[in-house]
Every structure is written in structure tokens, then in C-alpha cells.
Amino acid sequence: MPAKDGAVRPDLGATAAFDAQGVLWAAHKDGGYIAVSRSDDAGRSWAGPVRVNAVIEPTDMGADSRPKIAVGAGGELYVTWTRPLGKPFTGEIRFARSLDGGRSFSTPVTVHSDRQEITHRFDAIAVNDKGQLFVAWIDKRDGVAAAKAKGPAYQGAAVYYAVSDDKGASFRGDYKLAEHSCECCRIALRTQDDGSVLAMWRHVFTPNIRDHALARLTPDGKPGVARRVTFDDWRVDVCPHHGPSLDMDAAGRLHAVWFTQAPKHSGIFYGRLRDGAVDAQRRVGGETAEHADLAVSGNRVAVAWKEFDGERSRLRAMISDDGGDSWRERELATTAEASDHPRVLLRGGAFQVFWNTRREPLLTVALQ
Amino acid sequence: MKLFCRNLIGILLLLATAGALADHITIRPFDAGSMEAIRAKYAGKPFVLAFWSTTCEPCRKEMALWRALKLRYPQIPIVLVAAEGPADQAAVRAFLMRYNPGPVQHWLFADEFAERLRYSVDKSWRGELPRSYFFDAAHVAEVRSGLIDRRMAEQWFKTHSRRN
Fold first, then answer.
1. Which of B31, B35, B56, B98 to mutate: most A Cβ within 10 Å?
2. Which pLDDT tens digits describe chain A residue by residue (368 residues)?
3. Domains and their CATH numbers in chain B
4. Which of A63, A238, A313 lies nearest to residue B58, judging by beta carbons?
């Protein structure tokens, strides 16, 4: 973005992940490029950035879009982002990898086989224990086909995914996970011990309820059936730009945070998801709380979010040692300048919160 | 008949203006003081303030509604604010030309610190779009998240154009 001094200020959207050795990797913008930086001391100092794409391409960075990074068990680095195309709301999911410890990246490729100039946006990435790579995204091909057939109007979009068995050298897909997703929220992914991946996203339930759905992505492209997992009953045609976060505890219970403006209660909420109901649902933060993220380690649950108090954005967190029944709150950082959405990361079993701010780029704070 | 003709000429003029404006859209920077300035400008008068973005699908559908309402109730100001960064100005302009909301006012977030700008409008707004405020003459707002209900909007404009 052109700053007053004429310099280019890169977008703040960034994500990060620790590898098995405890090295922290962040995907972010560097000028117009997608870049990856490396920290060997949990974010106190950074090396890089190394450019992921040698040629600048437009990148979808607004609202709930930002580059994603995932790390394979052998230290492979996988990066995805969305490249907007010419028409409004269109895009394609881009992918590049590094097999040499982040020193260089492969030429970016488009993940999906569908090449229409339509919506393929809001990429999400996960690697299972077998090293298989899953990339999921929001896709409007079914809506476009319905419009061409002059059938009834198609509600929302759909979630599709692709799988790579060769560390990102090739992808197979496109597999449809579910129809009628909401159109502009990030998708949360969580790998399972059996090699499948759970996805949680904002859905459009009949007639226009924007609560959340959960389904299983399988490596063979035969996904499970989607089921509703939040029940706030937010009925509206809206772009919340506010996707959920999902993780699982040692007992196999699913923990999530999400956003709703339903009439009965609005704001950020935490809860444990189960069939047909949410356990221990509670509000997260105050009136201006937004963009929460969550991670689970054993039976400990950590949630981070930000709040604006009129002067500063505050990075706040709450932590539970008993699987989400009781909580204590902490404030981790503040800034009087722009900031991205926070992310809760796991370094071994310990929580770290990653928050890219204009004042302190790639800020990483331990959460105990 | 005379009244009909006058209305017709008025509508034709507005349509011509809308077409011409597509090429010369003025987009003002919306900063933390803009909300106060807009309210001061329309002191004692009703107006509509609507936030949107180029990545919001329901916002696209609203553009034609704003155009229809502006043509029918030209005396009520409609202020559209694109809730995205100044770097998106070209995309905002292209979107407005494509989905033409008619001769309404345009603003664009002036900086990247979106929380501060949203807070200056309404601290309970978390960034969902479209987000619309129907201010009556006393500037008490009816607030809506999501695609505006056409009947509600028409009724509101009808009521407030009469009182205006």
C-alpha cells in the first residue's frame, strides 16, 4: 500500500507454524511478494524473508484472506494463497513448496483442476501424519452451473478440496466436501490420527442461517457428510469475514471459537462441539472482541483474540487447564497501529500467540 | 401531465448523471473524523450510511437498490463507504462502475487501521458487510447487518422523505 513517504507498506495478513524442531516459520507479504521468514528463537529474531513467488502476482489479502503455511514432518514447507482474477469475487488457489528448509521455493502452481474465472478463494492447508497434503477452499462452480442452467438460485458457495500424496509435486481433486457454504470466511482444518482432516466452516443452512458446519475430508476423495455444529441461528445474507477455529483435545473432544451476530447473542463464542449441541458455550472477550483463534494441547485450551478500546488494539487470551470448563484471562500485547488477526500456535505442547502488527512485525508471545 | 413530464425529465437527468458519474466517481478518504463530519453536514436531516466491500457478495446486490432509492428519493443523502484499504481504490472504482449504485456519495477507508475507523462509527460493528445505518432527522439509527430488505428500505425512505 502506498505510504505517505512513498514506500510500499506490505499487507499485514500473515500466518505461522512451528516445525518438529521448534523452528517458527511465518508466511507473510514482502512488498508485493509472498514471503517466508524463519525464527530459531520462537519469534525473538527473524531470518529472511525468502520470496516464495519470483514474480509478483495479485494476492487476496482483505478481510479473512491471508497466506497460509504448513510444515511437513520432514521439514517441508507448504504455502498457499489466493490470487484474485479479473472479475470481482473470482480467484484461484496458489501453492508453492520448499524442500530445502526454506532456502528456495518451487514455481507456484494452481491447486484445482477447474480453471473457470470464478470463485476459488479462502485457501486452507493441512498435512496429515502420513505426509499427505490437504488444501481446501471456497468454490462457486456449482452456483455458476446452476445459474447457467437457469435453475433456482444457488445458496452460497461450496467447499472443495484437493490432496497431494507426493509432498505437493502434484494434486488430485477437485473433491466436493459440501454445498452451500458461506462465501467469505476462512475454513478451519484439524488433522486426525487416521489421516483424515476435519473441516469447520460457516455454512448457509436453510433458509439463510449462517451457523457452522463440520465434515471430514478423506484422502480418497470420499468425504463424510456435513453436520451442523453451532446453533446461534444467525439468519442473514451477510459477509461476516470472520471464520472459525477448531482443535481437538486428548479425549477426542472438539473445541472451537466462532463469530455470530445472532439476535439472541452476538460476538465471539467458545464451545465444545458435539452432535446436535454445543457444550460449555461462553462469550469470548468484550464488546469489540474479534478474530479469535484457538489451539489445544492435551486437556489445555488456549484462545487469543483482539479488542480495540478506542485508542489501541489489545491482544487478549484466555486459557483453560480443564478442557474448557474454567478459564483465566490474560493480556499479551497492545498496539496503537494496524494489526492482523492473531493465531494460537503450538511449540511442542506449549502455546505461543503470533500477531503480525505494523509496529512489531511477526510478534510472537508465549502464553502460559 | 405536467407533473409527470417534470418527473420524467428529472429521472432522465438523474440517469444521465449516473452514467456520466461512472467515469468520474469522486471517492473521499474516510478517516477517524469523517463520521462526525458526515453527521454534522446532515444535522437535522435523515441520511443513509452504508458500508460495503469489493469482496462482499451481498454488497453487490445492494448497489441496484441504492440506485433505485436514490432516483426515487433524491433528497435523501446516501453515503457509501468501501470498508477496505486505500490500496484497493482501483478495485473499488471498477466495482462501482460495474455495479453502478447511482448518484450517491463515495468514501473509502483512508488507512489500514480498520478497527479504529469502525469504532468511530459504531463500536459494536465487528466488520461484517454490508453494514447499514438509516439515520432519522435526529440521527437515531436503524442498524442492519447483511443485505437490506427492499421493503424495509422503501418504507424508510418513503417515511423520511415525507418528513424531510
1. B56
2. 333 444 456 799 999 999 999 999 999 999 899 999 999 999 999 998 999 999 999 998 878 999 999 999 999 999 999 999 988 899 999 999 999 999 999 999 999 999 999 999 999 999 999 999 999 999 999 999 999 999 899 999 999 999 999 999 999 999 999 999 999 999 999 999 999 999 999 999 999 999 999 999 999 999 999 999 999 999 999 999 999 999 999 999 999 999 999 999 999 999 999 989 999 999 999 999 999 999 999 999 999 999 999 999 999 999 999 999 999 999 999 999 999 999 999 999 999 999 999 999 999 999 98
3. 2-163 (3.40.30.10)
4. A238
Would an 8 Å CB–CB cutoff place A338 in contact with chain B?
Answer: yes
- Give, in degrees to the nearest 5, the angle at Cα B46 between B44 and B51: 125
The Cα-based distances of B119 to A309, B27, B51, B123 in angstroms read 8, 21, 13, 4
Average pLDDT value for residue range B74-96: 93
Judged by CB atoms closer than 8 Å, whether chains meet at B114 and A338 is answered as yes
Cβ B119–A1 below 8 Å, yes or no? no
CB pairs under 8 A between A and B: 99
What is the rounded distance in angstroms from the CA atom of residue A107 to the CA atom of residue A24?
Answer: 23
User: Smallest CA–CA separation between B153 and chain A, in Å?
Assistant: 15
Name residues 42-71 of chain A within 8 A of B (Cβ). Answer: 60, 62-63, 65
Helix (H) or strand (E) holding B39, with range, is helix B34-41
ipTM of the complex: 0.92
**A185 reaches B (C-beta below 8 A):** no
Determine, for residues B146 and A313 on separate chains, whether the beta-carbon distance falls below 8 Å: no
- The predicted pLDDT at position A63 comes to 84
C-alpha cell at A333: 500485547
Residue ranges of domains in chain A, CATH in brackets: 1-237 (2.120.10.10), 244-368 (2.115.10.20)
Distances (CA, A) of A7 to A1, A27, A35, A67, B113: 8, 21, 18, 22, 17
To the nearest whole Å, the CA of A34 is away from the closest chain B CA by 17
Q: In the structure grid, which three cell numbers stand for residue B114, read together?
A: 480498520
Reference B99, options A241, A176, A229, A87; nearest CA is A87
> What is the number of residues in chain A?
368
Q: List CB contacts (< 8 A) between A11 and chain B.
A: 87
In what helix (H) or strand (E) does residue A135 lie, and over which residues does it extend? Answer: strand A133-139
Considering only the beta carbons, identify the residue of B59, B119, B145 that sits closest to A308: B119
CB contact under 8 A, A237 and B59: no
Nearest to A140 by CA among A162, A121, A163, A164: A121
